[in-house]
Amino acid sequence: MAHEVQGVVSLAKDAPVQLTTIVVPDPGPGEALVDVQACGVCHTDLHYKLGGIGADYPYLLGHEAAGVVSAVGPGVTEVAPGDYVILNWRAVCGQCRACRRGRPWYCFATHNAQQKMTLVDGTPLSPALGIGAFADKTLVAAGQCTKVDPRIPPQIAGLLGCGVMAGIGAAINTGAVTRNDSVAVIGCGGVGDAAIAGAALVGAHTIIAVDTDKRKLEWAKEFGATHTVHPDDGDVVEQIQDATGGFGVDVAIDAVGRPETWKQAFYGRDLAGTVVLVGVPTPTMQLEMPLLDFFGRGGSLKSAWYGDCLPSRDFPVLSELYLQGRLPLDKFVTETIGIGDIEAAFDMMHGGDLLRSVVVL
Q1: Of the CATH numbers 3.40.50.300, 3.40.50.720, 3.40.50.920, 3.40.30.10, which one belongs to the domain with range 170-304?
Q2: What is the model's pTM?
Q3: Which residue has the higher pLDDT, 275 or 14?
């Protein structure tokens, strides 16, 4: 049978979101029905609302979530009713050329639930990142559910589903940061601070936080930043070099995604260093640089897709590190809110006044 629940929907570009009744079907083959317990308010949800990702309105927002599986469809073996899970938006197929080469974190055929959730009048909803978790229940592909230790609170666990994983993965998986490395992270919002936390976790000895907001630089110290750089104090690249004996960092992570910040990362790294782009550019952004600089500085230029994570591998490990007190995930939660408070959370996000609002259902 279908389930009528409350969900937060973006009906039109830049219109205020609405809390309304949605219809969630029972799971079909390969699908799982999840009772959502908590869901973070991510910038990606705001991008959907503003029309920055697509125009497939109405959108059912929310994707950074944890909850309990309440039912599964035919053929599902990965999870069972009662399992406590984090939702992910890259359910790997196991069959594409990336998966067959043993690189499932690059899966080129990730999938979502086949059935549509709808408004009461039958209008199909487009779930954000294939999840749609600002709702009491959501329908996903079973592969989008990753079992984790139920001792990790849902408002903490859900953060691993997107922003925190993207940042930690950018440092550890994509950037391959290791002990005694030096790292610069440009942009110290949730993703950037997660990259800082990841670099600290693996033993980077110098971690430089770069931001235009001095409040965020103070927050970055709580996640392991050893140095801070603000543009008012001088050229960003020169400040990074000054903190590293004049050489630049081993790994520079751009968590903003603008041409000017990418150039700071490029020139702020040491010779043969690595640049990781994890901030998402807009389609109109262009990069112009001398080609000789690419050759002359060597090294690697990488983009982090979802932190190059494999949820079945990474979510349980990071959950355990949190439970051991080695990964301060609770520091990412600025506030917990109700499902009717998401529009206000978007307003706070515009002002840079928080790291994460988390909806608790």
Answers
A1: 3.40.50.720
A2: 0.94
A3: 275
